[in-house]
Amino acid sequence: MHKHFHTALLTALVLLAPVPGHGADQDTQEAQAFAEVFGSGPQEEDVYRADRLLLTATGSLKPVHLAPSVATVITAEDLEEMGATNLSEALETVPGLHISPSTLNRLDDVFSIRGIHTGNNPQVLLLVNGLPVTQTYLGGRPFTFSMPVSNILRVEIVRGPGSAVHGADAFAGTINVITKDGFAIDGTKFGARYGSFDSADAWLQHGGQYKGWNLSLSMEYQESEGDDDRIVASDLQTVLDNSINIPNTLPPASLAPAALTTDYRILDTQFAANKGNWTCRLWGWFQDDAGLGAGGSQTIDPDGYTDVEQYMADILYQNKELLKNWDLSLRASYLYRDEDSFFNLFPAGTVLPIGSDGNINFVNPAGVTLFTDGYIGEPIVLETQSTIEATALYEGFTDHLLRLHMGYKQMEDEYEHYSNFGPSVIDGSQPAVDGTLTDLSGTPYAFMPESSRRIKYMSAQDEWSFARKWELTAGVRYDDYSDFGTTINPRLALVWETRYDLATKLLYGQAFRPPAFAELYAQNNPIVLGNPDLDPETIETLELVFDYQPTTNLRIIPSVFIYDIEDIIEYVDDPGQATKTARNVKDQEGHGLELEADWRILDTLRLMANVAYQRSKDKDTNEIVPDAPELQVYAAAHWTFRPDWSLDTRYFWIGNRHRAAGDTRSDIDDYHQVNITLRRKNIMDHWDLAVAVRNLFDENIYEPSDGSIPGDYPMPGISFFAELRYNF
Fold it and tell me: What pLDDT digit, counting tens, does each position of 102-111 carry?
């Protein structure tokens, strides 16, 4: 551990030392004072504590204010109130978490937490019912991933490292989506939504109990044609048109100015069954003909697309009676994913310098080639993940809860590759190439060799109530990877119920992020190349949190953090080439603070707000980490102004984003956005109606590009939708 971590940890422990005289008598006095002012001590009706249990931090349920973590819980009710249509919209309300489009991967959503992110965003672990949704090829989530919210029961967001519990990728944070079961749905529900950009959404759910089985079924379909006003003035092809000697008879190939292609079609289906000790879940997620945003190489590509089929199945057996004091569970899961992408990496009519290996080469080209139908590639990724794991919770020791966990995971990726360029396809001598694609699958010339990874892991954790109002959580996890070796990640968390209305937490954790398959092995690729010598990314984080609830209706949470990252992996420009190669490019350190408040000022009015500040820099150069906002402000008001009528207003301000070193473009503009949702319940028997406006004041909002799109990425302007729900 680094020296400054030792110093900070020692200082915080001194500050948290027990206060002399704070014993049972003082606790009783505080509880009596609470009762005199508010009628009772904290009871089950306390909305902030009783209803906000957290599973993700430790693997066992704990009230969120006592959980050894910095955490946010978003419930189904919260999702409905804010009018969220997908998971990303809800996550933007979390302190220190900002959603931005990827500069590498089709404008996919990047979950930037505390200034920690790269283009493929593998530093945030997304779980669905505790199972990772990680894509092993690039390390993040599936291509063009967006998750509808109608079947979400709750979302648990833990900021900070979680590898001691969850293993890989729980680096900057962990997001666990917990879906509804039959009890939560309780009947049949239907909903539909239509709005701007020809966006449409429909869902159908049914849940109930049949012959002892608790069953649920959910289906939701979403589609949009995208915002045609998100126009970029130029792209990478524009640069090439101006720098390559194009014959006078050929027009410029760039399609810019043109709109980013942000259309999508998503089908999300989920089934769950539970009886006795057994739980079974099936999940199918399908993306059809999704637009490629700024294109695979930052050139506008209206004809390109991504198709994804993903299936996940898991079965859980849990027994609390087999052995005294033991809660035992065994879980097996299987994931299959098929991702098919078609890229016009450069448009029809492009003229490119081609090396003898058939790829773009600006330094030593073998010739200049006209691609009459475009520079085309179709990579297909076929992925499977098989996991079996066992967990045991032991409560036989006084004041201890012991958790033991072990498992085995096998990951296999196969690839198909079709293109009209590359080794064995062209060699630079061709004056022109059409759109005929060559099948390179299974050859040494494919963009990836077949890849596999096997992981054995085990962890131990003890939640020790060593003194009244004090609990120490200590845990460690061991992971053994077949392709890069072993890693050990510990965590320590001290939680002190300082007063009846205040919990104080001191948290320390380590985490890791292994290189993705593409970062290790990508080859013959015109955009990115792998590096088999990569090391995993590692992080140490120290956090101090105060969870203060002076009344049952007001909760205030200030927190501070400091972190140290080593061996961040990014794709770095290859000198004189169009490619980028994955490298352990830098170490990063950061610190910051987050302040959030939730106040139910009246039975009919709830106010929420948070402010997040982070300052992160490259440890070697002292350059500020680019693109991530240093300051975020969020405020919301939910007002039930008449029976069955509510108005929800959300305000976001994003500021102080920096350019990368050497980027001479002007500063990234700060922006603010206001969203409102008006909802009427029981407009008729069983019918609910809502109307919403996003970006109410039609602000010009831009998120940073890497410079290939010089003017940054324009975000959607003002938009509207109307929603109708029916509960049978």
Answer: 988 789 999 9
Structure tokens given for 442? 């299974």
User: Per-residue pLDDT for 268 more than 60?
Assistant: yes
- Other beta carbons less than 10 A from residue 113's beta carbon: 27
SS (H, E, C) 26-71: HHHHHHHHHHHHHCCCCCCCCCCCCCCEECCCCCCCEECCCCCCEE
DSSP one-letter code for 197: G
Residue 222 lies in a domain: no
Q: What is the CATH number of the domain that holds 154?
A: 2.40.170
Q: Which two tokens stand for residue 46?
A: 């306390």
Stretch 76-80: mean pLDDT:
95
**Residues with Cβ within 8 Å of residue 86, at least 6 apart in sequence:** 146, 147, 148, 149, 222
Phi, psi of 520 (to 5 degrees): -90, -40
Structure tokens at 96: 């220190």
Q: What residues have CB less than 8 Å from 296, skipping those under 6 apart? A: 106, 304, 341, 343, 345, 377, 527
- Whole-angstrom Cα Rg for the chain: 26
For residue 83, which phi and psi values (nearest 5 degrees)? 70, 25
Q: Cβ contacts of residue 33 below 8 Å, gap of 6+?
A: none
Residue 28 has pLDDT above 60, yes or no: no
Q: Please tell me the distance from the alpha carbon of residue 71 to that of residue 556, in angstroms, as a whole number.
A: 13
Q: Which amino acid is at 82?
A: M
Q: What is the pLDDT of residue 52?
A: 66
- 310, part of any domain: no
- Who's near 20: CB < 8 A, 6+ residues apart? none
Structural tokens at position 630:
């240093």
Q: Which residue has the tokens 């009706």?
A: 45
Taking only the tens place, the pLDDT of each residue in 635-687 is 999 999 999 999 999 999 999 999 998 899 999 999 999 999 999 999 988 89
DSSP-derived secondary structure for 104-161: TTTTPEEEEETTB--TT-TTEEEEETTEE---TTTSSSPTT---B-TTEEEEEEEES-
How many domains does one find in the chain? Answer: 1
pTM, two decimal places: 0.92
136-150 tens-digit pLDDT: 999 999 999 999 999
- Calpha distance 216→206 (Å, rounded): 6
Structure tokens at 653: 């301000």
Host domain of residue 113:
3-183+230-301+320-379+390-727
Kind and range of the H or E element at 5?
helix 3-15
Mean of pLDDT values over 305-325: 96
Element (H, E) at 641: strand 631-642
In a domain, 384, yes or no: no
- 192 in a domain, yes or no? no
Instruction: With CA atoms as reference, report the closest residue to 153 among 122, 124, 130, 169.
Output: 130
Contacts of 352 (CB under 8 A, 6+ apart): 240, 244, 346, 360, 368, 369, 371, 375
In the block, which residue shows the tokens 């849940």?
207
